């Protein structure tokens, strides 16, 4: 996916700001890198984009695993920081046949300097989420911003964040079609006119410039659904901002289709995107 700059084309550049989390699977004696921002950066490289991750790593063995995984997958982590302490992690266990996630060590809060902001603004797309800890810097980031609200359904939060972003992502797995459209329109009314909502096997929807579009799910059998939403928004955003389709409706339709196919492929591998290692307990 590329952008035309003058007479030349170059790869779309995306930076993901915020969390990286090592997901521990004791029953499988494996661990996988996750976290919404880290996942987004990895998925961008898998799509052939130039990607960077800006966040913090612990200086323990899990932190080394997180840094090594991102680097090996082609993600630029050169501006990320390392702190003295354990890397963020969660433990995944089976309960009644379903995976349950327990937070073991939380993500460290980010502090962005003027130089950090200047670096971030060199990218074509900036991904953030409600766990990035970077809301205070939204107004300083002038590059197009994707914001993952996840399952947040709060008008006060929408009114604070929506006017400062360019594309909003929502998770609405349990919501009806009417509820999804109402939720998307509330975010749009708060100030962001590009909103997308994924619902797993119930499909997805997008509200762009007051036009609602719907997409059916592919109905694949999941090995591990962790990171599916991150795969979805990465593909949707990258396609929308690089599409060569002649109309906005066609761009949105292409984005919904690509995002559905891309995220469906990711749920067929363990962890968020595979590339696991032996468990460090």
Figure out the total of helices.
7
Give the topology string: H per helix, E per strand. Answer: EEEEEHEHEEEHEEHEHEEEHHE
Structural class: alpha/beta
Which band does the percent of strand residues land in?
Answer: 25-35%
Q: Helical percent range? A: 25-40%
* Gyration radius from CA atoms, angstroms: 18 Å
Q: Can you give the mean pLDDT?
A: 91
**Shape type:** globular
Note the gap between the termini. Answer: 39 Å
As residue ranges, the low-confidence spans are none
**Number of E-state strands:** 16
Question: Overview of this structure, please?
Answer:
- This protein is of the alpha/beta class.
- The protein has 7 helices and 16 strands.
- The chain has helices spanning 36-46, 61-72, 114-120, 155-161, 177-190, 228-242, 248-266, and strands at residues 2-5, 8-11, 13-18, 21-25, 30-34, 50-58, 81-83, 89-95, 98-105, 125-129, 145-150, 167-171, 194-198, 204-208, 211-215, 277-278.
- The protein has a 9-stranded mixed sheet, with helices on both faces. It has a 5-stranded mixed sheet with strand order 9-8-4-5-16.
- Strand 11, helix 4 (155-161) and strand 12 (167-171) form a beta-alpha-beta unit.
- Helix 1 crosses helix 6 and helix 4 (155-161) crosses helix 5 (177-190).
- The longest helix is centred in the last third of the chain and has 19 residues, at 248-266.
- It is globular, with a radius of gyration of 18 Å.
- It starts with a strand and ends with a strand.
- The mean pLDDT is 91.
